[in-house]
Specification:
alpha/beta; 3-stranded antiparallel beta sheet; D-Maltodextrin-Binding Protein, domain 2; Transporter substrate-binding domain-containing protein; 245 residues; Solute-binding_3/MltF_N; 10-stranded mixed beta sheet; signal; 2 domains; 35% helix
């Protein structure tokens, strides 16, 4: 395929995405580092923010990124009020959402207090534990099934610093944390007390799950052609090193 034809096809896809409202709304979590969060200055930051800005630059189309709690962001997307970025796939979600290509692979781990480590090889090892989670977040089919079967108990929190404080004071057995590469450091640096006790938090060796995340729109919004254009932005951003491959 010639470079000229490829360029024409690329521009045509973005032209098609303009058939919708000039400005698309996409919802994201304000506490989901490194995908989407507010930085120390209170500004939107993260891989999703970088990707959306790149899409705007390539396409010339404005995107309104609205950050809220994950629960609220998911509810608005479920109602077809806009897209949602940072969403993982589940069987139930596939029935109601259209997905982009994955733009980031999140490694989800179990964080425990130092000295309170336990053997973890499968979800079965979580039996009887009290686990801090974020409601409406999925941590893989095996975990979700075990949760529904009440193999373990969950403590639902929406603020990562609250989750870590509960762990620190032995109010939960472990915390599910996304992005084991740097997730904990992004959380503790917001809280001086947690930062001073960073060495009290350790990950269990085996990750809970590897969880690709996506941009998604409720099927009622009929955004499949828009997603095709966004997929090109994902590919281009990865090739240029703007987001992790």
């Amino acid at each position: 395929m010639s470079a000229r034809f490829t360029g024409f096809a690329f521009l045509f896809i973005f032209y098609c995405s303009a058939l919708w409202a000039e400005e698309i709304t996409i919802f994201g979590s304000d506490d989901y580092p490194p995908i989407s969060f507010r930085n120390e200055q209170g500004q939107f930051d993260g891989i999703a923010h970088t990707l959306i800005k790149h899409y705007e630059q390539l396409s010339g189309h404005k995107v309104t990124l609205e950050m809220a709690s994950w629960k609220h962001a998911y509810l608005l997307a479920e109602q077809g009020k806009g897209g949602i970025i940072g969403l993982s796939k589940t069987k139930s979600r596939l029935a109601i959402f259209d997905y982009s290509d994955p733009f980031y692979d999140s490694v989800v781990g179990l964080l425990v207090k130092k000295g309170k480590e336990f053997s973890f090889n499968s979800v079965a090892d979580l039996k009887g534990k009290l686990i801090s989670v974020t409601n409406a977040a999925s941590y893989g089919a095996e975990f979700d099934t075990a949760r529904a079967a009440q193999l373990f108990k969950v403590d639902i929190n929406y603020a990562a610093d609250v989750q870590l404080n509960k762990l620190l004071y032995d109010l939960v057995d472990c915390v599910v944390v996304s992005h084991v590469e740097n997730g904990i450091d992004l959380i503790v640096k917001k809280d001086p007390e947690l930062l001073s006790k960073r060495d009290q938090f350790v990950y269990l060796r085996k990750p809970l799950v590897r969880d690709p995340v996506y941009l998604a729109f409720h099927k009622s919004m009929k955004m499949k052609a828009y997603i095709v254009g966004f997929n090109h932005a994902i590919k281009d951003a990865k090739q240029k090193g703007l987001i992790p491959r």
